[in-house]
Amino acid sequence: MSEWRGISVFIEQDNGELERASLEVLTRAGELGRKFNEEVLGILLGHETDNLVKEASGYGADKLIVIDHPDLRHYNSDAYTEVVSYIINKYRPRYLLLPATRNSRDLAGRLAVRFRACLSAHVIMVDIDEKDRKLVTAVPGFGGNIVATVVCTGGKPEIATVSPGTYEARVSDKEATVIKETVPADLVERRRIELVEKSVSPMPDLSRAERVVVAGLGTGGDLELVKEFANLIGAAVGVTRPLADMGIVPRDYQIGTTGVSLRAKVAFVFGASGAPHFVYGIRDCGTIVAVNTDREAPIFENCDYCVVADLFDILKALIKELGGGK
Amino acid sequence: MVALKNIIVTMKVTPKPEEIRFDPITKTVDRSKATNEINPADKNALELALQLKEKYGGKVIILSMGPPFWDQFIKMGIAMGADDAVLVSDRALGGSDAFVTSKVLAAAIKKIGDYSLVITGEESEDGSTGQVPPGIAEWLGIPAVTYVSQVVDVTEDSIIVRRTIKGGYEVVKVKLPAVLSVELGVNTPRFPDFERLQWAQSEFKLTIWGIKDLGLTEDEVGFKGSLTAVTELRELRPRERLRQFIEGSPEEIARELIKRLGLK
User: Fold this and answer.
1) B184–A245: do the CB atoms touch at under 8 Å?
2) pTM of the complete model
3) What are chain B's domains?
């Protein structure tokens, strides 16, 4: 058997939509590949993939392995596990990096057990050790205020899922060589899960929004003025975990450790107390304004401008000053 | 008439994250002052299991892996309506990573046997990896559906569930037995029944298994069996902020903010 070599990246797509977080991971893999002289392999599964291939081939991969099959158009836990396992066995990459999205985490959890390999989940840093070349990652735990350095101590490939927004996706001057692979049909057909129905609406990319307005529990779930204000300043709207728990908006809009990390230049936070798992999600923002009725709320230790007031009064005043309102 | 067999619900006890303290000198985590609670998503998993039982029959069995004092939390699950419970408890399990945890839980699930479903929370509040549910499925050689928000229907050999995906949802049909990981907050977990709690605390016999009962050796579990190692812990300090209070009437505050942030 050949040695385990190279860095592979799972390039996630679903129904023809490329997951941008995988391009971030690919960019990082490209940096590590150059530094440690390892080949970077992108792995893309899907159907009618021409546009996806064109887009994904410019982010630092040396080779882009494409498996195109009608039954791979949508993510399928069983079929994807079998096909990616087949590719890993064929190319034997030492490292496998995936974006820490729902579908890729589902896949990574299966692959780690399948290969009896180490898996570091939801990491906020991925690197290779200079000496022994083991995968080194930083994993946030306990609500995000404690970070563990985790190394792989056994198994190949060494796997990590990387939090979306951790690295920036940058177009490379290198164009990947595309390799079209066909896999035995039964790998795709041997599945116990069938898609019945699917419903998705386009999502604003919160992690890349320049301005974000966040609604916390203090809004009681009434987002009308929050949305109006956000519209006036061209901002995206996010929520804290309690609001997502209430089911007012999909969990994709949740800011914090289990949700999105923001990199906005300006963030407004209305009616959030400032729990650690939330503060974690705004740590990379430029200027943060927080409005809360409780002067002692922890959010005021983690913002630039503190306003002790009723959030609806402030929202109304902001809307009026900006020339909005009915 | 569809009839489910055992419905095994995994449960973990986690410290409240905001009450965890970090000692920067010893670089250790102090959980001693933190309140423990049933991992929030696991309560949603248990509620879903109890609802399934009410509609399609079966026996709800809680499965946990942790220290003996977790029995009090497991009994709360019994008081919520679970029929039985197993705690895998062994000193050798200390330091187990997600790989080992999924292996041990899968071994216990096999030993319990005769199951239609294994239902878990989407992830734990302290670890937040979400990797244990698909890991369990792989050890057992059965399918897994992660991030489930709702059960649509149960048929003779399958279950139809709604699963959250980016920007929406998908409905999938999966063959039984299967692992379902349940999204946090998708239902309102019922309160423990007071009389049942009294029964659970006085008469209920919790089954406790060690690793030998599961046919596992010390080398396969804990730090030794894990494939990852934590080499360092540090506190992630949020960056220093201005923390400047803006006072005045709402209009004055609004004008001040607009000026400082250059919003107009």
Assistant:
1) yes
2) 0.91
3) 6-225 (3.40.50.620)
